[in-house]
Amino acid sequence: MPELPEAELWRRSLSSALTGRRVTAFTSLQPGFVRAPLRDPDGFAAGVVGRAVTDVERRGKQLLFRLDGEVAVTLGMGLWVRLELRPAPLEPPKGAELVFDSARSSGGRPAGGDSPSAGRLFLAITEIALANVRLGRYEPPAEPPPFDALDTRLDGPRLAALAPARAAVKAFLTDVRYVLGVGNGYSDALLWQARVHPRRPCNSLAAGEWAAVAVALRAVLTAAFEAGGESGFVGPRGRIGAYERPIHHHGGEPCPRCGSPLGSLTAGRRETNFCPVCQPL
Prior knowledge:
By secondary structure, the protein is an alpha+beta fold. The chain has 2 domains: about 5-135, N-terminal domain of MutM-like DNA repair proteins; about 145-275, Helicase, Ruva Protein, domain 3. Helix content is about 25%, strand content about 25%. The chain contains 6 helices and 13 strands. The protein has helices at about 5-20, 40-50, 155-160, 170-175, 185-195, 205-225, and strands at about 20-30, 35, 55-60, 60-65, 70-75, 80-85, 95-105, 120-130, 130-135, 145-150, 180, 265, 270-275. It has a 5-stranded mixed sheet with strand order 2-9-5-4-3, with helices on one face. It has a 4-stranded antiparallel sheet with strand order 1-7-8-6. It has a two-stranded parallel sheet with strand order 10-11. A hairpin with a 2-residue loop joins β3 (about 55-60) and β4. The longest helix is centred in the last third of the chain and has 20 residues, at about 205-225. It is elongated, with a radius of gyration of 20 Å. The protein starts with a helix and ends in a 7-residue tail after the last strand.
């Protein structure tokens, strides 16, 4: 599942390649992928064609394409989505495809070294399990909360003040009302690194434990970004992600730190893994 590191990899690449380019076409073979206007690819196309990309932003694990005229397209990455940016069309588009012209509007940034610099660009959006696109008015990011998971203000004391007292710490970290960009797999990794059980009530964590969670949050997400995303993720220029989550989906296997069998539990149809020795409840 794409989370913050994967979304940030694509944001940087797409911002470099698309800023200043104008949308010339949109095609979708799956109307359900378009959530606003609901199941209306033609209406979506009418709202974006002819507009230039002024910036590509990230909101948690969502990508936001800011267009001129105070319009924005949000790409919700869902359970899984794959993006392919090419100088030639894909035939046929498996899910949806945005086409951008070769000319950049005034003020557009030059293409980066990792992106085609001339000619039309085709952004194919494929493998769209629970992913979606929405067209709406551009709204600047609100003052937090929620905080982006890599916001430098999100230290131990801030986490402790933000957390609902009775909530489990994993539920808090993955709740978009408080923190943006942390999903199921990376939360397991960071709590294992911080030695905190995922079901610990937030009001049971001491100041030092919150500090450890804050450090692990940035360390895990940064390591995943630097590795090109999680294993199997296909990023910019076709690079395959190499970050191996240390415990997620490894229930019953030895803990990488102490060798004890990893525990596994299911909550809300999602698997949670932990070490019962390193992360006592």
